[in-house]
Write a structure and sequence with these properties.
654 residues, alpha/beta, GMP Synthetase, Chain A, domain 3, eight-stranded mixed beta sheet, seven-stranded mixed beta sheet, 31 strands, binds 5'-O-[(S)-butoxy(hydroxy)phosphoryl]adenosine
Length: 654
């Protein structure tokens, strides 16, 4: 991995001293009620990790118990060896067949305002039918199924139906373009795609099926497509390949027992960005993922039966997998799904939804909070927000200002705020306050969850002193860790497990304060975080150089008030090409078309040359400085051609 550790000591100028103890009324009812209780639980998980995880696992339903909790041959791991389990059964059947059958499992609101409620019994019925639909299409355990949908209950049904059979789902975020869809479908050789005609976003329809049609021109492995009718707009259906969801569901048999799957059978693949141009398909398996998403949901969101829980993440990201669907439903809690944009028709939509549905636990991203701050306090002020009891944040470091605004304006200073650190690779929340037990500090994710052994170390793997920045690593395996990169186990090993032998390298910088609280400091590699979405700078570069007029491109992140990081692209053009404002727009549109709007560069700067070392490596640090501050002050002694600096300064800003 090409880490360029921007000195975290220097970059952490931020020192925050406010501390908020858990409110006593909250702590009294919480699953974990005090710091002492957390510490005892944590210590137990250190002394006897297998005993700790086995106790948690026993809260779920297993068809056959495991014979061994953990088999660890770094970096290869097996959890609950020999155990047979079905995650769909734990998320749906257990509640549908028990006391929660009439309780709402999924509470859905469309962007135009329709509301649908599916009880656990109804969800059970739908999932069984859809599992039979998949079977009818010849899909069986181990087959890969791509899911490209908007936020509808049918998306959750599709996931759960795959999990019921042991078919491996690969959800592709609805904001990705056809090209990105092709790469992901082909990498996993998916045999089917589940999609919908379109989805509503800020009053506009996103034509998902049309994008699938374009992608499938280049995907020979796909034999069937199921199309859920959401918007009712016209789509082309290819005979023999495409099926309407409502038609196949009408013919499907009502019963489909949940398959007893091996604990280590793959559950899903989810692509995320790395430091190369090629996204990584992280593979998650069944038993360990079920166990840890279940317990982390329960403890971090302190879930109770009467909660209405809302996570605003799209199911296209890991947050949606773990904390819209699997973790929450396993706890038998009502999960709210909202289809559209947070500021449609007005910037108070989220607060209106919270009041309308009496949401009690709300989980969103710092970028959304910062957008709300910008829109103005009048929007949350219009609403009571008195059903809320807990607030969560995820996706990027949360700046103390946003944290305080969230606490005061949304939580009305009475709800604990939990900043949760984790990754696609970790599957579950790893570092976060247990809200009844751990005092919170604006900007800190506080302490590792029981069973999680996190440390901050030097490049050599030595712990850093209190308060110093370093690399965040995990010292022990955890049940919901990704098992490999699909088709690329070597990359998995080298990316995460080779820099510091025996430890998992997260790619994030962090420091630990005198109380043992973790402060996350952002990525230390060529990965940037734009509005809580992870993007490899190399991916954007690959897209840019694929344009016929581009010779070379270097992409870096620069701080952005709203998005966390914005994308700055430095581009050199092919010989005769002229740098024009039109070409800038053309390149921005090109990247949107290649990857999706989330990757569209904010700045495009044409330059005659890029700064390189003598060995030809682009000096991104210099570009980062230039893009962020307009100046280059750092060390340039390894630069091969000093005149490049002068020419770069001349590159006009976009
Ligand atoms: C990267 C993982 C985890 C679900 C959403 C993103 C950053 C995530 C936090 C946080 C500071 C955070 C890290 C991490 N990140 N949560 N609470 N504080 N940074 O998943 O796309 O896999 O991205 O997001 O840099 O490595 P992802």
């Amino acid at each position: 991995m090409s880490t360029t550790l921007h000195d975290p000591n220097l970059s952490s100028t931020l020192r925050e001293h406010r501390v908020f103890a858990p409110p006593p009324e909250f702590a009294a009812k919480a699953h974990v009620k005090s710091l002492e209780e957390y510490e005892a639980l944590y210590q137990r998980s250190l002394d006897d990790p297998e005993g700790y995880w086995a106790d948690v696992a026993r809260e779920l339903h297993w068809f056959t118990p495991w014979t061994k909790v953990l088999e660890w041959n770094p970096p290869w791991v097996k959890w609950f060896v020999g155990g047979k389990i079905n995650l769909c059964y734990n998320a749906v059947d257990r509640h549908a067949l028990g006391g929660r059958k009439d309780k709402t499992a999924i509470l859905w609101e469309g962007e135009p305002g329709e509301v649908r409620r599916l009880s656990f019994a109804e969800l059970h019925a739908e999932v069984q039918k859809f599992a039979n639909v998949l079977k009818g299409l010849g899909i069986k355990k181990g087959d890969r199924v791509a899911i490209y949908m908007g936020m509808t209950p049918e998306l959750a049904i599709a996931l759960l139906a795959c999990a019921r059979l042991g078919a491996i789902h690969s959800v592709i975020f609805g904001g990705f373009a056809a090209h990105a869809l092709v790469d992901r479908i082909n990498d996993a050789a998916c045999c089917a795609v589940i999609t919908q005609d379109g989805s509503w976003r800020r009053g506009q329809e996103v034509h998902l099926k049309a994008i699938v049609d374009e992608a499938l021109e280049k995907c020979s492995s796909v034999k069937s497509v199921v199309v859920y009718r959401r918007t009712g707009s016209e789509v082309t259906m290819r005979k023999g390949r495409d099926h309407w969801w409502h038609e196949v569901m009408a013919k499907a048999a009502p019963e489909c027992p949940a398959e007893p799957l091996d604990s280590e059978d793959p559950l899903y693949i989810l692509y995320t960005s790395g430091t190369t141009g090629k996204p990584k398909g992280l593979v998650h398996t069944t038993g360990g993922y079920a166990v840890q998403t279940y317990i982390s949901s329960k403890l971090v969101f302190d879930l109770r039966d009467e909660d209405v829980y809302w996570c605003t993440a799209d199911v296209g990201w890991v947050t949606g997998h773990s904390y819209v669907v699997y973790g929450i439903l396993q706890n038998g809690v009502t999960t709210l799904m909202y289809e559209g944009a947070p500021n449609y028709p007005e910037p108070d939509r989220m607060w209106k939804i919270i009041d309308d549905h009496k949401v009690s636990v709300f989980y969103t991203a710092p970028t959304a909070i910062r957008a709300c701050i910008k829109w103005g306090d009048q929007y949350p002020q219009r609403h009571k927000l008195d059903s809320l009891r807990l607030l969560g944040s995820v996706g990027e470091p949360i700046n103390p200002e946003a944290w305080m605004w969230y606490r005061e304006k949304i939580g009305r200073s009475k709800c604990p705020v939990v900043d949760t650190w984790w990754q696609t690779e970790t599957g579950s929340i790893m570092i976060a306050p247990l809200p009844g037990a751990i005092p919170t500090k604006p900007g800190s994710a506080t302490r590792p969850l029981p069973g999680v052994v996190a440390e901050v170390v030097t490049r050599g793997g030595q712990p850093v002193p209190v308060g110093s920045g370093g690399l965040l690593v995990m010292r022990r395996p955890w049940p919901s860790m990704a098992r490999t990169i699909y088709n690329d186990p070597e990359r998995y090993q080298s990316q995460y497990w080779s820099a510091i032998p025996g430890s998992y390298l997260s790619g994030d910088g962090a420091r630990i304060d005198q109380d043992g609280d973790f402060w996350l400091m952002g990525r230390v590699d060529d990965v940037i975080n734009v509005s809580g979405h992870r993007l490899g700078t190399m991916e954007v570069e690959s897209a840019l150089v694929a344009h016929p007029k581009v010779a070379e491109a270097a992409v870096v992140g620069r701080p952005d008030e709203l998005k966390g990081q914005a994308i700055a692209a430095f581009v050199t053009l092919e010989g005769s090409q002229k740098p024009t404002p039109e070409l800038k727009q053309e390149l921005r549109a090109w990247v949107t078309q290649q990857i999706g709007a989330l990757a569209r560069p904010d700045d495009v700067r044409f330059t005659q040359a890029l700064p390189k070392t003598r060995s030809g490596k682009i000096m991104r640090r210099l570009l980062r400085e230039l893009a962020s501050s307009g100046e280059i002050k750092g060390d340039i002694s390894t630069l091969e051609d000093f005149s490049v600096i002068a020419r770069l300064r001349e590159s006009d800003e976009g």
